[in-house]
Amino acid sequence: MKQPIVITTAITGSQPRKKDNPALPVTPSEQIESTHEAFEAGSSLVHIHVRDKDENSSSDPELFGQVQEGVRKHCPGMIIQFSTGGRGREADQRGAMMYLKPDMASLATGSVNFPTMIYENPPELVESLAASMKEHGVKPEVEVFDAAMLYNAVKLSEAGKIPKPLHVQFVTGIPGAIPTRRKLLEFLVDELHELAPDATWSAMGIGGRQFEVNKWTLEMGGHARTGFEDNVKLDRETLAPNNAALVTLIADVAGEYDRYPASPEEARNLLGLAPVA
Ligand code: ZN
Description:
277 residues, alpha/beta, TIM Barrel, 8-stranded parallel β-barrel, two-stranded parallel ribbon, 8 helices, 35% helix, binds zinc ion
């Protein structure tokens, strides 16, 4: 029997708008439209960063609120996830929009080197973001950039600081963080299954290997992530015209792995989220 796969679309990210990707959605209306296209193509979860008027990464709750409102209206039931990522944002602002109660928010459970910076997530910041999510009923998506972050997340969940079941995103392919190696992903997924048997997981391959990783997760029983935040091309050369085209790549091959794109209701059920009223 075919099993559903939750396809996450990371529509924008925090990198500057590149000249070679004019299709990157940056304003709230562009973001809502791009999310809607991805939703229609089979995505049931949207991962959101917002930009200010100069297109810099922002923590402005007003902007997060606008995107959330539009997505709720145009993409009924789609899971909304806000990024609390640190690139270009002050630590004390990273959870400023949590009171808007999105379904989920990203939570990196440790620090790691990126090519030109340290992605700093000291223990007190991780705990305060986790506490804020708990207070507002927001489910964390644990972002694992390095192996230790998996074990940190399990520890936080055992201590009741992250609610169960865990949902983990393995972020592979950023130089300095875990590389895109199938053996490594298999090991990490095995560890997750052993330490948190009820957990769900997804993985991504930044730097041109996203679709390869998508096929691994289809095969391994995980969920998938795609979108312009991680990758802008359909293959080695062709620029994706929009986020939806990247979702379609996954939807089109899912059947070969006995999977199909989860509906919003199925996605909510799989991740232990409340159904839409
Ligand atoms: Zn992100």
